[in-house]
Design a protein that fits this description.
Elements: H1 17-50, H2 54-59, H3 66-95, H4 99-103, H5 111-136, H6 145-166, H7 171-205, H8 208-222, H9 229-246, H10 250-270, H11 283-303
Length: 308
């Protein structure tokens, strides 16, 4: 090389796929560790914040006082922060990525895309409700009757706990629920699944569509509700494409928040835990219309996708 020659830049050596498998395992381990650490912090600060025993609240299925109710949501919220936010931030540090860039917080989303994303969630509701009802009608083979019974008991307990959180809400309860049941899960879960998790999966598969499907399946499974698996999976796929087309965390977070906030808001104004399951006449025809309109909005979002 002569004095005037410019050295060629060395391309980064492609890492073996096992490297990304180890990164994904690391992310899961960080989620377990984070959930445990933040859950313990929440339990041991409940007495100071709410005047109730945190360990007792964590095992309650029904709440006799508002202090117990707030404490239970507090424990759930901190555990979620540990499992998803702490794990994501820790994994980004392990991967050596700049925190803000890795979280996708700097990327701005055009207002029209944000509006279309919010409208999409409303349009999707009849289809989500239809698939939830269909999923609930599933039956396992007779040889797996005990497993089905256990899964249905878990589903019913999850629904009952959700109702405990939203029944007889005051306006303060409503605001508290919007924060801890809509905004916080939307940000935490999208950061984990549609930003850090999907990035690792894509590094392994090198296929955006496959990565979105895998991340959506994990999103559905981690909720632990077998009889709500299909709508969660389909919603996860939609969120994945919103993240892909916007190149930002904010659009899927907005869509996720609107979906969660819709249930909290409808329940507050109607005091009915099933308020989001609207009677719209023929459910099959309404479902088809919902899917058609949703696909139209998705196409509009795809046309406006942000290029790298």
């Amino acid at each position: 090389m002569t004095e005037n020659q410019v050295p060629q830049e060395f391309e980064e050596t492609p890492k073996p796929r096992i490297w990304y498998v180890l990164q994904f395992i690391s992310l899961i381990l960080m989620a377990i560790v984070g959930s445990g650490i933040f859950g313990v912090i929440a339990i041991y600060t409940c007495k100071w914040l709410f005047g109730v025993d945190g360990l007792e609240v964590a095992t309650l299925k029904e709440f006799g006082t508002r202090d117990q109710l707030y404490a239970a949501r507090y424990v759930q919220a901190l555990s979620s922060i540990g499992a998803f936010v702490f794990a994501s931030v820790a994994q980004l540090a392990i991967m050596g990525e700049p925190l803000v860039d890795g979280m996708g917080l700097k990327n701005k989303v055009p207002a029209r895309m944000l509006l279309l994303g919010a409208i999409l969630v409303f349009i999707m509701q009849p289809a989500i409700s239809y698939f939830a009802t269909w999923n609930l009608s599933w039956h396992l083979p007779a040889s797996m009757a005990d497993l089905e019974s256990s899964l249905r008991a878990l589903h019913e307990q999850a629904v009952k706990t959700q109702f405990e959180f939203v029944k007889n809400q005051t306006f303060i309860d409503f605001l508290f629920n919007l924060l801890f049941m809509a905004a916080l899960p939307a940000f935490a879960e999208e950061l984990f699944f549609r930003r850090v998790g999907i990035q690792i999966i894509f590094s392994f598969t090198r296929n955006a569509h496959v990565s979105i499907v895998i991340s959506a399946l994990l999103f559905a499974l981690i909720h632990g509700q077998f009889f709500y698996l299909v709508p969660l999976f389909l919603f996860g796929i939609v969120l994945g494409y919103l993240a892909l087309w916007s190149r930002s965390l904010w659009l899927p977070v907005l869509a996720h928040f609107v979906n969660n906030a819709l249930t909290v808001t409808l329940t507050y104004f109607s005091n009915d835990p099933n308020a989001d399951e609207m009677d719209l006449g023929s459910p099959f025809l309404i479902m088809l219309l919902s899917i058609s309109l949703s696909n139209f909005i998705l196409l509009q979002l795809k046309k406006r996708q942000i290029q790298d």
